[in-house]
Amino acid sequence: MSGEGLPTRKITINEDDLSRLQADVWSNEFAPVKLEMDGESYEAQLRFRGGHTRNYPKKSYELRYGNNKTMHWNAEFDDPSMMRNALSFHFFNSIQVPAPSTRHFWLEWNDQPHGVYLDIEAVDQTFFRKRKIGSRALIYAVNDNANFSLIDPDTNQHKSTLFSGYRVMKGTKETPVRLTRFVRRINRPAGEALRSYLVKRLDIGLYLKWLAGAVLTGNYDGFDQNYALYEHTTSGKYRIIPWDYEGTWGRNCYGKLCGSDLVRVKGYNILTRKILSYRSCRLAYRRILNQLLTDKFTIQRLEPVLMKLHGELTPAIRDDFTRKWPFHTFQEEPEVFKNYINERRLIVREALSSWKN
User: Fold this and answer.
1) What residue ranges do the domains of the chain occupy?
2) Tens digits of per-residue pLDDT, 279-299?
3) 227 and 240 in contact (C-beta within 8 Å)?
């Protein structure tokens, strides 16, 4: 097997270290490895990453190497196309919502073929530096407690802490204090005081673009988790970044085909509901959706990107016997994407036409 047409990366790991990782797939412990990439060799650290996917036979990995460099290698085991994250982040970047860059590659593991992977750029200080964005704090939304609510979705009881569901990746001891205060404040009645607070503490325009992107791509799991927040240095406002868009474009996060109407046009979570309670925000959101339906979320704009990705992946996917999906399913995936885009466009346009201001 070989990853024809894709760059090759190699991992060499001691069998004892590998056995130690495999003994507890839920551990975040790292093991030393040798990484070969782009003609260079590095001493690196590797661990398993992900949620339910850690139990899969083909694992996803986080690697750290060099001067605090981090890479996320996704097996995309549930996605028969291996393109949903890549196309989603391309779409977000096209609508000026900063999102990770991606790159497919072929992995060799202890000199044995390990199949096709997707390298997803880490959202970290390097991410912001490349884009010349100032950030004083970075917070990951790691589970569905990150729903901006006072209530735990599993117990229906008040949360023991309003920082539940979040993890500070960069900041100070005041970072969770400020976010806790933000969550508490947005759960107050939607009046003029809350409007003023939101304008002061949230980049509402960017949030509405992000909301439109999540709604159009159909990421049901993207509202209560699978995003990052950062505090913009100059404005002090929270801004949002998408993360983990494998369950999109007509399939859920387990790869099952689902209806193009799975995600409602007004989205989800408490913060979204509060923002859309103001008429000016609803009108702005409608304008964004209408504009995207006109010039971004169209077959004409997306099909060339989709088919380029599909063409680049086809030889390697044909050779990749580590995946759970048969090759013929991969071959049929462009039609799944195109059917979803056409159906989603009709659903969103119909919802907008009946949306009362």
Assistant:
1) 8-121, 132-295
2) 999 999 999 999 999 999 999
3) yes
